[in-house]
Structures are given as C-alpha cells and as structure tokens.
Write a structure and sequence with these properties.
Layout (H helix, E strand, L loop, with lengths): L3 H9 L30 H10 L5 E11 L5 E12 L6 E9 L7 E5 L7 E6 L4 E4 L16 H5 L6 E11 L2 E10 L2 H7 L3 E7 L5 E7 L5 E14 L4 E11 L5 E11 L18
Antiparallel strand pairs: 1-2, 1-13, 2-3, 3-4, 4-5, 5-6, 7-8, 8-9, 9-10, 10-11, 11-12, 12-13
C-alpha cells in the first residue's frame, strides 16, 4: 500500500525520481528473477515509494568516502552534507562540502532537484576560486572522482524510464522487488550514461539495497549495494542505508560512502543552499 506522501505526489502529477543520493535512495534489480503475474504490484508505484523512502524535512550528515583502486590502494575523504526539502515538499536541495584531504578540501557542490524541469548543479573549485554550473550532459560524469556520477547523486527522473517488475528476490534475508528500468529516449540514455538499470527495492520500507547498471553500448558497467539500513525518522517512517558501495566493473575501482553521523529536522536556513554560499566554511 502506498504511503500518504506517495499518494500526495501522485495527485500532484509530478515527475518524481527513482534515485537520489547521498541523501541518497539508490534503486536496484536482480538477474534471473521470475516474471510476476499480471495484476501484481505496479512497478511505477514501487518506484514512487522508493522516491520518498528517506526524504525528511532537512538533515545534516557527516560522511566518509573511501575510494579503492583496482590494485587495492585506498584514499579516504571526509565530507559534510546538508539537505532540505524545497517549499513544494517534493524536490530536495543538497550541499556537499569536502573537508579533507588537501587536494579536495574546500570543493563544494550544490544540487537542486526540479520535478518539472532541468535540475541545477553547481560545483565550487577552490583552486580557481570559481563556481561552475554543470549542464545536462555533465550528469554522467564522475562525481568529484568517485564511482558515482552526478546523475547518481541527484537522482534519475521517474518519468524518464520504463519499468518492468520481474519478480521477488531475497537480499540479505529480506524480500525485495526486482525491477528493470530502461530509458524512454536516446536523450535520457545519453545524459544518464546508462542503457539499462536493474533494481532491488525492499518490500517492507522501499529502500533500494542493490543495483546493476549497463552502459549505453550494452556492456555491464557498475553495481551498487546499500547495507546497514536504519529508520531515520520513526514518526514519518523514513529509512536509509548508511553504508553505500559502488563498483565500476570496467575499471575495477570502487567507492564506499559511510554515514558516520546523521541529524534530521535541524532547522537549516534556505540561504545555505545557494551558489554564493559554496565557498563558505561548514
């Protein structure tokens, strides 16, 4: 059964997202699952539930990123993330600031979702003392050298993809829906960098705990897992994975994102989410 928030989003007729990241809800699907009978759960409704699974009014998070090369060399980064829902109660704005190491310290990104139009993405580069605005084609690029793209972080628009529910499959002993996602147009494929996604979404709380991705040429590209799933807002029944891992199977590189601290409903100000604030200390 859809949550009250999901029903509200449907009534508004907005184009909600199937993926949102460091705030982050990342969707997933498995191979070899049996096709379910007609009339079973609507995959579009599952993805709408996934969209709202971890959305809180606002939050402040401390996050550690670990980048591991194919040879096993590890680099660790420390970040702080602020996120807040926009007045429409649908879209989210997010600032991610890098605190260490020295080569990325001071780098900051601002990501603003727009359900009815193009998203806004800005990045502040301290070496240039300049804020750069990214365009749609940049969304498939690596997010500050990680194995997540900018599109992975800000999320894919639900209406841009066609979904098929393939069946059910347990992940770590928990029942999940298995969903295939295909881009509806060449533009969506080229902008996202993905020719196909497969998604595993938990039945109980709609958190995506596994994903596989194919590139635009049809080659297997990346896979994702979300573990340490916790309830982050009991009253609103919001959940999130606190340990996220993305493997690039073409390069052998991997990125882990670990939430070390998360506070919700902290009363963030709107002015903290503007490009002129990107060069500020956290």
């Amino acid at each position: 059964m859809a949550s009250e928030s999901c029903v509200r989003y449907q009534a508004l007729g907005v184009q909600v997202r199937a993926w949102s990241s460091l705030g982050v809800v990342i969707a997933a699907v498995g191979l070899g699952a049996a096709v379910v009978a007609a009339g079973d759960t609507d995959p579009g409704e599952i993805m709408r539930r996934n969209f709202v699974a971890d959305k809180v009014v606002d939050e402040r998070a401390e996050i550690t990123m670990v980048l591991t090369s194919e040879g096993g060399a590890r680099r660790e980064r420390s970040t702080v993330s602020l996120a807040k829902l926009l007045p429409n109660g649908i879209d989210r704005q997010r600032v991610i600031r890098f605190l260490s190491p020295a080569e990325v310290k001071g780098t900051a990104t601002l990501l603003v979702e727009h359900a009815d139009g193009d998203d806004d993405i800005w990045i502040y580069l301290p070496a240039l003392h300049k804020v750069r605005r990214l365009v749609a084609n940049d969304k498939k690029d690596s997010f500050v050298g990680t194995d997540f793209s900018y599109g992975d972080i800000i999320g894919q628009r639900l209406a841009d993809w066609s979904y098929q529910l393939l069946g059910h499959e347990p992940v770590d002993g928990v029942d999940t829906y298995v969903i295939e996602a295909l881009p509806k147009s060449d533009a969506v494929r080229d902008t996202s960098g993905y020719g196909k996604r497969k998604l595993w979404v938990r039945v109980d709380n709609a958190v995506a705990v596994k994903a596989e991705f194919w590139d635009t040429g049809g080659a297997f590209f990346k896979d994702f897992t979300a573990t340490d799933v916790r309830q982050i807002d009991a009253k609103a029944d919001k959940w999130r994975g606190f340990h996220l891992t993305m493997h690039n199977r073409q390069t052998g590189h991997a990125t882990e994102i670990v939430f070390t601290k998360l506070d919700v409903a902290v009363g963030l100000r709107d002015e903290e989410f503007s490009e002129r604030y990107l060069d500020r200390e956290p």
